[in-house]
Design a protein that fits this description.
Nucleotide-bd_a/b_plait_sf; 166 residues; repeat
Length: 166
Amino acid sequence: MLGKQQDEEDVRRLFQPFGHIEECTVLRSPDGTSKGCAFVKFGSQGEAQAAIQGLHGSRTMAGASSSLVVKLADTDRERALRRMQQMAGQLGAFHPAPLPLGACSAYTTAILQHQAALLAAAQGPGLGPVAAVAAQMQHVAAFSLVAAPLLPAAGAGAAGRGKAAA
């Protein structure tokens, strides 16, 4: 984590020994204060890896609450998966509440059977937790698209080449 007072020039000086910096951006709040996070784009993957090895956990910046975290920036796919996991947690997708079986009991039963099959397949040999979550998210997306009209409205009323995040 960066301190609130570090700016782009401070970050450039910190990362410059590891290679050519193509871009450097410190994330800021709407009021202009640093969020304690920056993105540094190097000319090559090797330079980014050298910065990770040399700086990750190596120091605590002045004004920061934790040591410096240097890693490759998440890909668009990783960010999307994390957002889906957060949404699924909010919707209770991993611990669904019992559904009332009314007029659409056959439909509800089919959805529950589909969910059970996806979970069983995702937990099969050779598939890790990411595959299990991905299978569950596909189900949540399909269920949401198909079942949305049947449910009441809730609350009715960089990674480019050589990009490292600090």
